[in-house]
Amino acid sequence: MYVSLFSVSRLPxxxxxxxxxxxxxxxxGAHVLAPYGANDQELAKALLPPAWLTGGSPEHLLxxxxxxxxxxxxxxxxxxxxLLISTTAVVLSGILGISLGLISGYGGGMTxxxxxxxxxxxxxxxxxxxxxxxxxxxxxxxxxxxxxxxLSAWVTYARIIRSQALSLKEHxxxxxxxxxxxxxxxxxxxxxxxxxxxxxxxxxTLEIANMIILTTALSFLGLGVRPPEVDWGSIxxxxxxxxxxxxxxxxxxxxxxxxxxLSVNLVGDELRDRLDPELPS
Length: 281
Description:
Largest sheet: none
CATH superfamily: MetI-like
Number of strands: 0
CATH class: Mainly Alpha
Number of domains: 1
Helix content: 55-70%
Shape: elongated
Oligomer: single chain
């Protein structure tokens, strides 16, 4: 009975769900779970190693950084901005990409040509370069970071949703809805969008991992959140000069990034297999 409920093949998915739940709960409850504030400094305890190593302190489980800030607390608080920015960017890019994909696929004609040429242009520009350009124009802030990350990913939604809309509009139930007097907007939202909803959900889940990578990369380069805000990328960026003497500053937030990205991909693959097995891997 136990084996049938939790088969070996499902262990990776179960692991993914557990890591995601822990990350979300840690982010939401950082103000309760963190023993210190994200920016509480104690220079006398700077560069303390993790508690289980020689010289470590049980008061600082994962050690401290160069300013004596508790690393465990900063990772918890950093999860909040990292996940918030990434999920907000996914929602923004999803709304834009799905809307343009529906317009392009269902509308066709010159509108389709224009939107697809825009997609081709954006695909020719490296994502990181595009994000840096947007931030440079708008100045560094969380708002500009969300916009830059969100604008870099809408093309994925647009291309996939367009292809599905092109196929759906030829189905008999669309012709029946049109013959019954339904307007074009009603057909798009009531019939076409409802039939691509599973694809949208799967794409959104998988894109969260890409958004986390891009968000942390920009913060690592100094183009993300600004103090007193903190995210995982900025923590790694702060520790890059001490990687040989205080490896824990880079290792633990880097491990958090890797685990969350892995878990998102595992959960996304599971959703794809369940909801939309025809979606490209």
